[in-house]
Please model this.
Amino acid sequence: MEMDVAATVAEWIRQSNRIVVLTGEELSSESGLPDLSGPSLNPNIRDFRENKEVRAKYWKRIKEVYPSIINAEPSPSHQALAELEMIGGLDCIFTQTTDGLHHKAGSSSVIELNSSILWVNCTSCGKDYSLNEILSMIEKGEDVPKCTECGGDQLKPPISFPGQPPPHWEAREAWIRLHKADLFIIVGASLEHEPVASYPYLARERNIKVVIISENQSPADDHVDAMIYGKPSQVLTYIVSKVKEGITIT
Ligand SMILES: [Zn+2]
Model:
């Protein structure tokens, strides 16, 4: 980590009134979660709808990862961002993660761009379930859970599987918040796919400062105001401690 760059970012945070943060998979893995964005948990939507075996395989995998999702604790990154919200200046976090850990850390303004894996919706009648309810149906021996309202077995979390458009409201809301921001910090996120891939460029066009913090390289790295390669937890903890140093309590 480049400490002087991190200290500069802390200074920018102190001067900003509307900070928007985008987070992604690197934060989930810091909390010890398996990759929830991989193909075993994201089957093609058409296969999922048409093939009961694909659904059975999906729910079997959910059953395997459920304990790690439910028992996961927020990482120092999640905690640093929750703290930043309390200090002031943070408008919202939009996240590519689906594990609910920002909420668990105490952040209140969170937009889940890919929705959440923690609840399940019947795509036939619309009834909602907690993932926990669905798991108990599976525990009772059902390979594919059935809706108690309509009897259908087309239940799934509201996350988008390949072949489905991303959740619309969330993308629109993120877009609006980003337009109003004065500092955009991207932490441990993937900038491979649209619409998120365009966010750093959109922000730069509007003279919004852009910072990327990640262990990995991205196509936008050379086009932002500051790039810090490192573990999000280490970098964010350091930055937030610097932000606090500069605040005089009156
Ligand atoms: Zn139903």
